[in-house]
Amino acid sequence: MMDDQKWVLRNSVIWNKHKGGLDSSKDKLRNIHENIFHFVKDEKKYFYDTSKIRSDARKAIVKNGSVISATGVSGVRYKRQIELSTALTEEEKNNAFEALNTVLERIKNNEIADFRMIIRGQQRTTHSDSEKVSGRVKELAQKGFYFLFYHPDRTLPDDVWEIIP
Fold first, then answer.
1. How does DSSP classify residue 40?
2. 108 and 37, same structural domain?
């Protein structure tokens, strides 16, 4: 299809059916999944209306006065890493604390649901260590930290579907 008819594969989805039907074969494993392929003719003219297919994300909460993100990030570990860092200057530490507190306030106000903080010398950079490839690496070099924010309007479906037939 892709070579002769010029279709473009956008996604390959695994449908995990959990409990496939009975299979009395003695020469193969039981099949409990199916592949679903999503092809388009022109990838530049195709798009998802992501607002229609997003699923509800977990919500951030405030527990005992502490803000906790949708995946359990409270900022305590990041604060400790900033405090003990030998890779950050005092000014960078102060800026990192201030930025982290701002992000936690944004979570408290439901502006964002979740985040990750990358701190120089603590976490590995995402995607690449090259400033030519990643603007975040440049930000890490200049500021000593950067944030990754999760989309506030719920999450996109992934490429493994857990649907019981």
1. E
2. no
> Which of 39, 31, 2 has its CA nearest to residue 15?
31
> pLDDT-derived band of residue 127, with 50, 70 and 90 as boundaries?
low
pLDDT band at 32 (very low <50, low <70, confident <90, very high): confident
Same domain, 91 and 143: yes
Total-model pTM: 0.60
Q: What is the pLDDT of residues 41-86, one digit of tens each?
A: 887 887 778 777 777 666 777 777 777 877 778 888 899 999 999 9
User: How far apart, in whole angstroms, are the C-alpha atoms of residue 62 and residue 107?
Assistant: 9
Co-location of 38 and 117 in the same domain? no
Structural domains counted in the chain: 2
74 in the same domain as 135: yes
Give the integer Cα–Cα distance in Å for 161 and 159: 6
Residues 39 and 81 in one domain: no
Residue with tokens 């005092």: 90
